[in-house]
Amino acid sequence: MKTIKILGTGCPKCKTMTGIVQDVVKENNIDATIEKVEDIMEIMKYNVLSTPVLVIDEQIKIKGRVPSPKEVLELLK
Amino acid sequence: MFDWIENFAEWLVFDTFGMTKGAHLAEALNFFIYDTIKITLLLVVIISLMGIVNSYFPIDKVRNYLSRNKLYGLEYLMASLFGVVTPFCSCSSVPLFIGFVRGGIPLGVTFAFLITSPLVNEVAIGLFLGLFGVRITVIYILSGILLGVVSGLILSRFKLERFLTPWVKQVLETAQREEDIFKAEKTPFLKRLPIIWTEVKDILKGVLPYVVVGIAIGGLMHGYIPDGFFEKYMSKDNLFAVPLATIMAVPMYMNASGILPVVQVLVSKGIPIGTAIAFMMGVVGLSLPEAMLLKKVMTFKLIGIFFGVVTLCIIISGYIFNIIL
After folding, report:
1. How confident is the model at residue B89 (pLDDT cuts 50, 70, 90)?
2. Which residues of A touch B297 (CB under 8 A)?
3. From the list A12, A50, A65, which residue is nearest B195 (CB)?
4. In this structure, what DSSP letter does residue A61 have?
5. Average pLDDT, chain B
6. Do A49 and B293 touch (CB under 8 A)?
7. Angle in degrees, CA A69, A75, A77, rounded to 5
8. A29 versus B24: which is more confidently predicted?
9. pLDDT higher than threshold 60 for residue B271
10. DSSP-based three-state secondary structure for B72
11. Residue ranges of chain B whose CB lies within 8 Å of a chain A CB
12. Which end of chain B has the lower number of beta carbons within 10 A, N or C?
């Protein structure tokens, strides 16, 4: 079971990333929870400078850009 | 360089559609087709180039460098240049702001970044190149950088830390020099390209509709407004033109990409370039949506001071451009 967090203040890019991650998890039946973190105070605990950020099991995997579904799948394997 | 587009537009309008040379509608259509193709191409090139720079640009490293070193004033210039290369998306400005504060970087330096970042972005550069040519574009970029530096220096004199929201003050108290070295992603260029290209497409999708509508309106105006029309009303001697143009510009953020083509036509019909640049800086650099985002980290008073100083600097630079250009 993986914990996925998407950090972002609600910009279009963050929404795109959330959509991609949700699709990948659903299509591949991956056992994971997806949490959207929109509170800037929470986001800053990860000490990131650009959003959106993809966090898997508390590890920052991608920041500042939208990944492709393939990339997300590889990170989740 | 763009002769072939001009030829193509003329061929399409006059030969293929069989419209009469010199007729208002024909000239407007010709202008529209030429500008749309040219600007779209320029936008694709500039956004791609900036995307590549961005993909390699070590944001964390620069922040840590600013945090670690005393630069005797040069840090304002560095922060401002940093603003040039960071992306268009204003939603990253808040995390960056906090990141700077946490690194113990002075507020004035952070403001220098915050001012230049939206002002000099890939979309604005692409549009300026297409509409006003290289010379005005370079002037615009340089003044965008200078504006950030000067406003940042002025703002640093005000001891503005007391106007931050309480939780940011807390961050400020625990600020420390950033020592950790960031591991850069080692992705080969060819693997980065598709990612960059997706972002280029996303940005284009967002701005192109506005640009095309702007060019269409501009094209109509181009054909119908007589040359020199505005010189009567908005000449360089009219002292109120620059401040009025700047203040009018602030609420127009959403359509920045649509307004630039219209402004270009206004300039060709006699509005002084300084007044026009002041107006455009107001449109691109100061926006209400950005103010709303900043509310999370600043009190209203601080946002007011911030916008006030920047507006003032834009107005002054508008006057200067009207005198020297």
Report:
1. low
2. 40
3. A65
4. E
5. 82
6. no
7. 105
8. A29
9. yes
10. coil
11. 55, 59-60, 63, 86-87, 89-92, 94-96, 98-99, 102, 167, 171, 194-195, 198-199, 202, 206, 293, 296-297
12. N
- The region of weakest confidence among B93-97, B138-142, B160-164 is B93-97
How long is chain B?
A: 325
Across the interface, of B92, B199, B293, the residue whose CB is closest to A50 is B92
Nearest by CB to B95, which of A48, A65, A67?
A48
Show me where the domains of chain B are located: 21-173+206-324
Question: What does the radius of gyration of chain B's CA atoms come to, in whole angstroms?
Answer: 21
d(CA B19, CA B25): 9
- Secondary element (H or E) of residue B305: helix B300-324
pTM of the complete model: 0.81
- In which band, very low, low, confident or very high, does the pLDDT at B150 lie, cut at 50, 70 and 90? very high
Can you tell me whether residue B95 is helix, strand or coil? helix
CA distance B96 to chain A (A): 5
Domain architecture of chain A: domains with CATH? 2-76 (3.40.30.10)
| Residue B55 with chain A: CB contacts under 8 Å | 65
Please list the active-site residues of A. Answer: 11, 14
Cβ–Cβ gap A65/B199 under 8 Å: yes
**What b-and-e string marks burial along B285-295, b requiring 16 or more CB atoms within 10 Å of the CB?**
bbbeebbebbe
**pLDDT over 60 at B303, yes or no:** yes
